[in-house]
Amino acid sequence: MFKKDLPFEAVKTEFADEQSKFIQIDGVEAHYKDEGEGKPILLLHDLNTSLNEWNDLANHLREDFRVLRIDFPGFGLSSYNKNFDGKLDSFIYFIKKFISALRLDNMAVIGVGWGADIAWHYATLSPYLVEKLILINPTDHTSYHPFLYQKMSKHWLGSFFYRWSGSKRIVRKRLKKWFHQTSFVNDERIGRYQSLLLKEGHRKSFMAANKAKHRNRYDRLVKIETPTLLIVSDELGKNPIVKELPKAQVLHYKKVKLYPMIEASEQTNQDVLKFLKK
Fold first, then answer.
1. pLDDT at position 149
2. Quick check: 45 and 51 in contact, CB under 8 A?
3. Cα–Cα distance between 272 and 133 in angstroms, integer?
4. What residue segments make up the domains of the chain, in order of their start?
C-alpha cells in the first residue's frame, strides 16, 4: 500500500519521448510538446494527471494545427518546486509565462477539469489572445464534491496516507472512478499513472493545489464573449457551469465520465475539429 517517491530523472528518462521538450519557468523544469503547424491550440490537462490525456486529440489535430500541451508544475514530467503554492492564480500565471515564452497568440485553448478552469480564467484575463475556447467537464468549485482521497488530503492524517500511497490496487480503484468503461482501466494506463503519481513532487503538488484557497471569479463566466464549446459528460450529473455560459455551444456525452477525449475519442475529435474550423 505504501510507496516512496521515484526519482524525477528516472521517471523522466522512462516516459520522455522524441516529442518531449523542456522549458524553465520560475524554477520549474516544465515538460511540453509542440507538434504540427498552423494556428496554435493549447491543451490543458486535469489536476493529478498529465499531458498524456490529450494523446488521441493531439494526434488528430496536429494535421491541421500547431498543437501544444504542457504538464503543470509537479505533474507529468514537470519538476516539483516547493515554492509553487498550488493556487489557481499560480497555475494561470504559469500558463501565461509559457504562452509568452513561446509567443503564442490568436490561439484556441482547450481544457479538461482543472485545466478547463484555467482555460476560461485565462480567456477572461487575456481575451485578445484567445480566439476559441473549449471546456470539457469544467469544475464548479462553488458546488464541487471531490472524491474521498481529495477530501482526505486536506486533513493532516489523510495527507500522510496520500503522501505514501500509490499501490496498483489503489491506482486501479481511482481510475475506475474516472472512467465509465472498465476497458480503459488497463495495465498500461495503471502502470503509467502509478509511475507519474510516484514521481517525486507529484503528490506534494496535488496536496498543495487541493489545500490552497482559490480566488472565485465565477461572476466573469457569463461575460465570456469568446466562441465557446462546452462538452459535458451526463454520467457526472448536471454541470452548473452550463447555465453560466448561455452563449456556448453545449454537447452532452453519454457513457463517459471525466475524460471523453479518451473514452469517446472519435466523437471528441470530430466535434472539436468541427468547432475549430467554423
1. 44
2. yes
3. 10
4. 13-145+218-276
| Closest CA relative to residue 35, chosen from 50, 7, 57 | 57
Q: Is the Cβ–Cβ distance between 80 and 205 less than 8 Å? A: yes
- Is 87 within 8 Å of 212 (Cβ atoms)? yes
Coil, helix or strand for 105? coil
Pairing relation of β-strands 228-233 and 107-112? unpaired
Which of 148, 141, 147, 144 minimizes the C-alpha distance to 120? 141
For the chain, which residues score pLDDT lower than 50?
A: 142-150, 152, 156
The CATH fold assigned to 13-145+218-276 is Rossmann fold (3.40.50)
Q: Which residue has the cell 497568440?
A: 105
Q: Which strand ranges, in their side-by-side order, compose the sheet holding 66-70? A: 20-25, 28-35, 66-70, 40-44, 107-112, 130-136, 228-233, 249-253
Total-model pTM: 0.92
Please choose, from the candidates 251, 25, 8, 238, the residue with its C-alpha nearest in 3D space to the C-alpha of residue 135: 251
CA neighbor of 25 nearest in space, from 58, 86, 71: 71
Q: Please tell me whether residue 229 adopts helix, strand or coil conformation.
A: strand
The model's pLDDT over 130-167, given as tens digits with 9 standing for 90+, comes to: 999 999 999 865 444 444 444 545 554 555 555 556 78
Name the residue type at position 95. I
- Sign, CA dihedral 262-123-106-104, equals negative
Rg (CA), the chain: 18
* pLDDT reported for residue 154: 53
Contact 208/85 with Cβ under 8 angstroms?
yes
pLDDT for res 156: 47
Joined grid coordinates for residue 222:
457569463
Contact 27, 81 (CB under 8 A): yes
